[in-house]
Amino acid sequence: MPNWCRTEIMLSGDAGSLGKIAGVFLRPAPFQTLKPCPAELLRSASPAEQSANKQTTGFKDSHEWCLANWGVKWDAVLEKGSVRKDAEGRLLISLDTPMTPPLPLLLHLSALHPGVELSYRFEIEHNSGSAGGVIRKGLIVRSGEEVEAADILPPDEQEFWTQKEQAIDEYIALDEDWDLDLPEGTPTRPQG
User: Fold this and answer.
1) pLDDT tens digits for 128-156?
2) Are residue 85 and residue 164 in the same domain, yes or no?
């Protein structure tokens, strides 16, 4: 059983884009909706099929593809009330993923909606790590500058996520001013 990672996302900007994003996260399988895993990778595959998949898609199976494109091995789990607006009209999304935050997917989401600024904060259960950041136009904002993820992340995304504690400390700046403490009683693992 993996440790669960709770990611709190705050989006502000173009109201039309915020509505579209909310619609995606109110549906089942939001990651698959935003950035679909190729159908041929979703079914179980023999070693020969995995080899063919690797040649045609660059990935042997859905697990490998999801880690590289979403940052996690399967889609997000959202509880009722996980998608809401605050008094200032910002969209707030709370989601759970196994082990790590879905940083590659958040970068993709931001690139799809350049009129939206995305702030995130995550915490991995059992005090395994926490951090946060800001993403704008598909770029990580670091010291006020928009930076390509490739400039601060190692080239092998799977290795990045496997060594999450080191990566968190080295590559993601904490935003101490943005306090998203979860309310008392908020489950740290998906219920049901």
Assistant:
1) 778 888 999 988 888 777 777 666 554 55
2) yes
Distance between CA 111 and CA 114 in Å, rounded? Answer: 6
User: Domain check: are 46 and 109 in the same one?
Assistant: no
pTM of the model: 0.75
* pLDDT value at residue 184: 54
Angle between helices 103-112 and 62-69 (to 10 degrees): 60
Host domain of residue 46: 36-69
**Quick one: pLDDT at residue 75?**
94
Handedness of CA 167, 132, 136, 21 (dihedral sign): positive
What's the total number of domains in the chain?
A: 2
Element (H, E) at 84: strand 83-85
Pick the closest to residue 121 from 31, 21, 13, 10 (CA basis). 10
